[in-house]
Write the structure tokens for this entry.
Amino acid sequence: ILAIAIIFSLNIQSQSKPTTPPNDKVVKKALYTTKEKETARKNFLKEVDKIGMSPSVKTKYLAIVDKHTSRLKDANKDRKLTQSQATTNVNKIIKEQNQEIKNILTPDQYKQHKLIINRYQNSINYRIQNQ
């Protein structure tokens, strides 16, 4: 009975420990250079112009994007997150951003937004995983 109790308690302890992938490294450097950020921002704004938002909606849209971009920048400064933690955080921030944006765009505009933002999200996640 004692042996079964010991085995059972070991099994429970091993299940309760948080597990990280074996190659889950800490993200130690910036994902983009200053020049890359500037280029991405210019390209993003050109793509956004093609969505066809009214000036007032575009102002709201860019305010939402700027708010969440700031959150992404802050997360990128944290050099303690592992690759999986950083990826989860990025995806969470973009998901929250998309929920806010969905409320101000038409369904067609939102589809266009998603096509644009998905490329940037994929780029960020790729760079996190290839550090």
Remarks:
- The two ends are 49 Å apart (CA to CA).
- Residues 27 and 82 are 6 Å apart (CA to CA).
- Confidence is low (pLDDT under 50) at residues 11-17.
- Helices lie at 2-16, 34-49, 55-77, 83-102, 107-129.
